[in-house]
Request: fold
Amino acid sequence: MRVLLADDQPQVRSALRLLLEQESDIQVVDEVSNVEDLLVRTETSVPDVLLLDWELPGLPAPGLLTALRQGHPCLRIIALSGKWGARRSALAAGADAFVSKAEPSERLLRTLRDVRRREDKRYNTIS
Reply:
């Protein structure tokens, strides 16, 4: 699974990268700190899953999800936030899942695999 990290905090991106690189079935293909780079790197990195900081500076997240979905309908998006209140707005805006930054790392790994499994099932049903 190819993952793109989008968070404006370098320490968060670093921690996510360290966690994900320990998993044999996950490859971090790129990381970005702002919306402008995210839109460009989504094109060049071709990720399967985007881990998106829900408060990423540059464009309100609901509008960003719409733009990403238009260009990459198969991209799975997991919203991340330190604010529990962001869960409802992230899911309502179309995120495939939400994980609080305060949750244990196992939760994020489980969510990544669940989102990918749902996508695999969808394609197997279509074929």
